[in-house]
Design brief:
Distance between the termini: 38 Å
Order of helices and strands: HEEHEEEEEEH
CATH architecture of one domain: Roll
CATH class of one domain: Alpha Beta
Structural class: alpha+beta
Strand order of the largest sheet: 2-1-6-5
Strand content: 25-35%
Number of strands: 8
Largest sheet: 4 strands, mixed
CATH topology of one domain: Ubiquitin-like (UB roll)
Shape: globular
Radius of gyration: 16 Å
Helix content: 10-25%
């Protein structure tokens, strides 16, 4: 089912109760809508959350770049919003998305590819795409 953006007045009302942290951010967990796979966690500021809910294309706030980060703008690995959910404390969002390609900058399907085991951190999956190719660089 395609995402339908709320009317501007409805969106404004919904966003009034969001509890951002001291830096003006809220945790955002991206989950593949049809499988339940947890893909990644990132941060959103008010502008990123509003843009995501208006456009249906997921936008985060990059703490390192100190600006909006539209998922897939450099890699092509876009997240299309299916549904957004707000937690009980209004301080975290769950984004049910349709992930195009890989979600992790390491070239893996998701960012949670290491498990804590008695032997130490164990890698659960290998990259599906070389990060240098993903971001068209030679790094």
């Amino acid at each position: 089912m395609p995402y339908t953006a709320p009317a501007p007045a409805v969106l404004d009302t919904m966003l009034e109760g969001i509890r951002y942290d001291a830096a003006g951010l809220i945790a955002a967990i991206a989950q593949q809508h049809d499988t339940g796979e947890v893909l990644m966690i990132a941060w959103m500021n008010a502008e990123a959350l509003r843009e995501t809910l208006q456009s249906g294309r997921v936008c985060y706030y990059s703490r390192s770049r100190k600006g909006l980060w539209r998922k897939g703008e450099t890699s092509g690995q876009v997240q299309h919003l299916i549904q957004a959910r707000l937690d009980c404390d209004s301080d975290a969002v769950l984004l049910e998305v349709d992930q195009i390609g890989v979600a992790c900058h390491t070239g893996r399907r998701n960012c949670f590819y290491r498990a804590f085991t008695p032997e130490g951190l164990t890698e659960l999956s290998k990259p599906l795409i070389d990060p240098a190719k993903l971001y068209h660089s030679h790094a």
